[in-house]
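Task card 7
Instruction: Convert sequence to structure tokens.
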Amino acid sequence: MYCANKTIGVALIVLFFNSLKAQPLLSKEKKLCFSFEGGYSRFLYNDDDIDPLLQSYADAIKDGYHLGGQLTYFLTDRFGISLGTKFYRTTAASDSLLFIFPNTTIPGVISDNISVWETYIALISGFEIDPVYLYFYLGAGQFYYQNEVTYIIQRAEIRDVTPAFRFGLGLEFPNSENLAWFVKAEFVTAVLSDPVITYKPPVTLGSVEEESRLSRIDISVGLQYSIRLKKKRKAKQRSLPKDKRMPGRFE
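Output:
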């Protein structure tokens, strides 16, 4: 599995940089873009080992939403560098469960309240297919994970900060010279390798040593505002013939 993921990652990187050579650059005009987005998110994980009684709960925790923003500097019409941030949220709860123990059965609650804050940098490449602009990007950044968990009567908070990687495809639809709306799909993946668990009230239940991979798909709709950065051209000074020069003006 590791080799397969590594091969796919290398293939995406090669595809990205080959796209930079696919077509001649459209222009050398630089552009600064501000964009805001939001949409639907879906966790991707294997839930084959989950108790069938909790299947509906597991399905609910997969669905969430996200909000984000980006600042992108286009060096050309086909290549840019982007700084972005994104907030992701999903919740699920079930209060109609019976937990069966050897000597007793008690009612209890199970819930998750997951929040993820991300910051990242990405390389963007694309080309124009009149009347839209098709682009894709590769990025990496930090993944700030927090989950407030309730299990039966025990509450806990799980936190972790870990690297995250992303790959996305988008379509941009211009409305005017400076304004455009876009749709995009993005794949984000991170590994929680060293989560910190705080129990409320504090108890000693051991540490979590197993790594957890968190991957998801984001489907976004957003709005982008662009500012074209035009270089100021120096005006050429015209030289007049000597017989037409005004005294003291050019001499």
